[in-house]
Amino acid sequence: MILRHALAALLLVLCPLLAAEPLRVGLSPDYPPIAWRSEDRIVGLEADNARAVGEILSREVTLVPLPFEELIPALLAGDIDVIMSGLSVTAERSRIVRFADPYLRVGQMAILHRDKVLRFGQPWAIYQPGVRIGVEPGTTGAAFAERELPDAAVAFFPNPDSAFDALRNDRIDLYIHDAPTSWGLATSSDNGDMISLYRPLTEEQLAWAVAPGNGELLEDLDRALSLMRGAGTLGYIINRWIPVEVTVQ
User: Fold this and answer.
1) d(Cα 54, Cα 245) in Å, to the nearest integer?
2) Which stretch of DSSP H or E encloses residue 111?
3) Which residue stretches of the chain are H helix?
4) What is the pLDDT of residues 112-169, one digit of tens each?
5) How far apart are the C-alpha atoms of 59 and 37, rounded to whole Å?
6) What DSSP designation does 155 have?
7) Which of 35, 54, 139, 173 could form a disulfide with 61 if both were Cys (CB 3.0 to 4.6 A apart)?
8) pLDDT tens digits, one per residue of 66-111
């Protein structure tokens, strides 16, 4: 009987501690305005989303910076609880992770050097044979190029900066990447010689992802997102970081 009471008392002490376990949020902080490093902090749209979710769920948030290609493996290994890093919902990813309700509709966009605006200003121009296209491996932009641009010369770049260098040196004509990369051009003076066509080539949805079997957290995320929408918090965060008009579901 004494042992039973002792265990009950211990559980009363431990339960609040367990409930207060930090929410480990995986993100790739090299992707403005979604997430990037500013001095010693990670800032951006998803960083704000994570903090808002933490407030709603009454959980401390720990941001876990990882290379983009390591996010899903880390989630499946249990090293993080949720991916909040501008992740596009795809059929392939949906087979291995579970997505929360989408929070933003976006698409792939083409970026080019300003010297080539006249050549590629028309929507059909990207589909011309021999156009030199840059993409990042493993992205929906790479999948688009493989599927829709069979006559293009496709080159791979590990990040936008290396692709911008290729654009400046006329090694590629266009760089296809997620809309946030194009949005970042609107607020950065570092790449003033680049411009986006701002015509979505695809329609995609961004959402947060959890590991299969973590249905409880998935429900919490959907509830938090619904509250963020209703209170205007989501709209405020999006408007803060994205300087161009987008469609929010």
Assistant:
1) 27
2) strand 108-113
3) 2-19, 45-57, 71-76, 91-94, 117-120, 140-148, 160-168, 179-185, 215-231, 233-241
4) 999 999 999 888 999 999 999 999 998 889 999 999 999 999 999 998 889 999 999 9
5) 23
6) E
7) 54
8) 999 999 999 999 999 999 999 999 999 999 999 999 999 888 999 9
Pairing of strands 82-83, 61-65: unpaired
CB neighbourhood size of 241 (10 A): 22
Written as one letter, the residue type at 144 is F
Q: Which of 238, 111, 114, 125 is nearest to 178 (CA)?
A: 111
Dist. CA 128–CA 247, nearest whole Å: 29
C-alpha distances out from residue 66 to 35, 60, 69, 71, 85, Å: 11, 19, 8, 6, 10
Helices (H) and strands (E) in the chain, counts: 10, 15
Structure tokens at 183: 């949005």
Question: Residue 88 phi/psi, 5° resolution?
Answer: -80, 140
